[in-house]
Write a structure and sequence with these properties.
Structural class: alpha/beta
Shape: globular
Distance between the termini: 34 Å
Order of helices and strands: EEEHEEHEHHHHEHEHEEHH
Number of helices: 10
Strand order of the largest sheet: 6-7-8-3-9-10
């Protein structure tokens, strides 16, 4: 479904991503794990067109995204839930959700809203509430719901557990699994490596802009180097 080949991304003179290649197959949950500053978010931004690679290519369903505008990438079926949620704080919950459908036909919005409200009953209860007054967990649900409004084939999630209480982290990860079971492929960037790998099909370990390890998630959970660096053991 998604193939990333030989990405090299720079911030000015800083070589942030170094010859990164990976793939995500339809139906998978693939986790990118690594320390702060490893380049995980930069990779997602490059896939979604917010940053450009100097070399290599990103293809989705066999078609290159290298010169495609970000909103066109959304139209092709990729939704990006950014780090820190980035909801529109002064807008209502429902207005935020409607913004997620800006590339979709107008006739699909009502059905998409119904789908999001069925999946996130709390958002339905708060649909008229200003997004800035929601809790952190509710804002994460809203960011995910907004992404679902474009009816994505692939959802990219950047640090969905950040700043949330443990019980909310479990809830968010249960939702991610449910989305996957109902047909959405997931690319997950997450510092909570234990949680990320516990729900993933496969995982990639990123260090200082390079992929240093790739394996089935179960294998990574059992890997001594991964345990020591990311799993507290």
């Amino acid at each position: 479904m998604l193939n990333v080949q030989n990405l090299n991304v720079y911030y000015g003179n800083i070589h942030a991503i170094k010859n990164v290649s990976f793939s995500v197959e339809s139906g998978e949950i693939v986790s990118l794990i690594g320390a702060n500053g490893a380049g995980k978010s930069t990779i997602l931004k490059t896939v979604s067109g917010l940053l450009r690679t100097k070399t290599g290519d990103v293809t989705f369903e066999g078609k290159s995204l290298k010169a495609v505008a970000p909103h066109k990438i959304v139209s092709r079926g990729i939704a990006h839930v950014p780090e820190g949620r980035r909801v529109f704080l002064q807008m209502s919950v429902e207005e935020n959700l409607e913004m997620g459908a800006f590339t979709a036909p107008h006739t699909t919005i009502e059905g998409s809203l119904a789908n999001v409200y069925e999946r996130f009953p709390r958002l339905k209860e708060r649909r008229r509430q200003v997004a800035g007054t929601l809790s952190g967990g509710e804002q994460q649900m809203l960011a995910m719901g907004r992404a679902l409004m474009s009816r994505p084939k692939l959802m990219m999630l950047d640090e969905p557990s950040m700043g949330l209480a443990p019980i909310l982290v479990e809830q968010i990860f249960e939702i991610i699994q449910e989305l996957n079971k109902t047909g959405t492929t997931i690319l997950l960037v997450e510092q909570n490596a234990l949680m990320a790998l516990s729900i993933a099909t496969r995982g990639y370990v990123l260090e200082t802009g390079k992929i240093v390890l790739h394996a089935q998630a179960k294998e990574l959970l059992a890997n001594d180097a991964v345990k020591k660096a990311y799993l507290g053991g």
